[in-house]
């Protein structure tokens, strides 16, 4: 082994949870190393998740705008086409720039970047197998932070080859747009990737086991959302399970069955995306040897200070229970190292937003109407459609609505869902309002710039607090 290096913190995993924790730890004056095995920083999010998917969503959206909407803005285009290799290259460039950027941030903040796969060998030691396969280093630390993230959940009977039967990773790197695509799983990732290829010309069918897409979404918004996606050309096959998938002569042959039982049917496509979820990734991490407890889904169990049952070992992000989102992992990471530094790190999970980056986007924070009722709240709701919002009308992008859920007696905001253009940006008004314990009336009485899409939030708050918006 190379000489042992003593640190205050060794972070295992350089995704949004791990790299942000490492930078914050250094900013708090702790000595820190971050171990990452994939050869680049940024984790799932930057390399094969949030960022490349948003690059492809943007390119395909712009293509769609030019194809379907430019005419209505009075803009004429000649023959329109796309160069898919160039689309992919733009995405790769964005990813490369951002991952290199984190290396720069590590240098600036004096975080030691250790390339290789880390394994716990004692409560204070991580052994790192170098990427060259021959060298290894042992790092010693007062505290160890596990941030090894998640991996794609496989679907039994449908083996992923990343060319024809792909996970999201393969779907982000296709060399050509498939003629026909089947997406297994109607969650955020499936809908986003399905939208990308549908916009670029693929015939896309989403097969979903449940009777609803994105079950966590407000039911009323979800129904409108699904209709909107159908209008765009996505097809849905609900309440259906895929029991088998195989590649035959370059085509994917799938066997489907009704989820509740019944006769099997066959379906064929050029590319099948398996996007039924993600599971924690702790392969080779040495959890068992140290007796670190996990739950029945393989997630590392932590207390509300991110501590595992081994007091010097902490865990965050996709590896632990909670929403599997990059910004949640980042918040976990910051709070965990604050706690290690003797401060009062804390994450308010009630205000973590989730966003589906289709067009229109759907963003939500807090409780949906259904969740609020199930928790025993007496609720009132207020809605406002983007059809009645002047900015949305001016730019010709009117699909969607804002829906606010508040406590009937106190008017306290409980949740907000926005389906509409830029919903992912606008939702932060709801996030802040919820964080500050605002009432619907607080939002309704807050002056909003005109003409903006955000005025729809104020109008929905007026509808919630006073029963009537102004413009509808
Ligand atoms: P990860 O990002 O998974 O990072 C963990 C890192 O640890 C990896 O780089 C891995 O190589 C490394 N590692 C694992 N084991 C070891 C080891 N033993 N030694 C060294 N290194 C190790 N979330 C959003 O919030 N917004 C989105 O728009 C969004 N879009 C997504 C789109 C797709 C297609 C996918 C797949 C995911 C998306 N997500 C999105 C989810 C998001 O990527 C994750 O929630 C987030 O990356 C979790 O961060 P993390 O730091 O916990 O783990």
Automatic annotation (TrEMBL):
- Family membership noted in the UniProt record: Belongs to the class-I pyridine nucleotide-disulfide oxidoreductase family.
Provide the Pyridine nucleotide-disulphide oxidoreductase dimerisation domain boundaries: 352-461
Which chain regions cross the lipid bilayer? none
Q: Which NCBIfam families match?
A: lipoamide_DH
GO aspect biological process, one term: 2-oxoglutarate metabolic process
Enzyme Commission number(s): 1.8.1.4
Which residues bind FAD per the record? Answer: 54, 118, 148-150, 318, 324-327
Against InterPro entries, the record matches this protein to: Class-I_Pyr_Nuc-Dis_Oxidored (IPR050151), FAD/NAD-bd_sf (IPR036188), FAD/NAD-binding_dom (IPR023753), FAD/NAD-linked_Rdtase_dimer_sf (IPR016156), Lipoamide_DH (IPR006258), Pyr_nuc-diS_OxRdtase (IPR001100), Pyr_nucl-diS_OxRdtase_dimer (IPR004099), Pyr_OxRdtase_I_AS (IPR012999)
Task: List, alphabetically, the GO terms of the cellular component aspect.
Answer: mitochondrion; oxoglutarate dehydrogenase complex
Gene3D superfamilies found in the cross-reference section: 3.30.390.30, FAD/NAD(P)-binding domain (3.50.50.60)
PANTHER family on file: DIHYDROLIPOYL DEHYDROGENASE 1, MITOCHONDRIAL, DISULFIDE OXIDOREDUCTASE
Query: Which species does this protein come from?
Result: Chlamydomonas schloesseri
Q: Report which superkingdom the organism of origin falls in.
A: Eukaryota
Recite the other comments: The active site is a redox-active disulfide bond.
Q: Which residues form the FAD/NAD(P)-binding domain?
A: 7-333
Q: Which UniProt keywords apply?
A: Disulfide bond, FAD, Flavoprotein, NAD, Nucleotide-binding, Oxidoreductase, Redox-active center
For the ligand (NAD(+)), the binding residues are 185-192, 208, 277
GO molecular-function terms, A-Z: dihydrolipoyl dehydrogenase (NADH) activity; flavin adenine dinucleotide binding
The EC category is oxidoreductase
Q: List the disulfide bonds.
A: 45-50
Catalytic activity of the protein: N(6)-[(R)-dihydrolipoyl]-L-lysyl-[protein] + NAD(+) = N(6)-[(R)-lipoyl]-L-lysyl-[protein] + NADH + H(+)
User: What note does UniProt attach to the cofactor annotation?
Assistant: Binds 1 FAD per subunit.
* Protein name stated in the entry: Dihydrolipoyl dehydrogenase
Cofactors named for this entry: FAD
Q: Which residues form the active site?
A: 450 (proton acceptor)
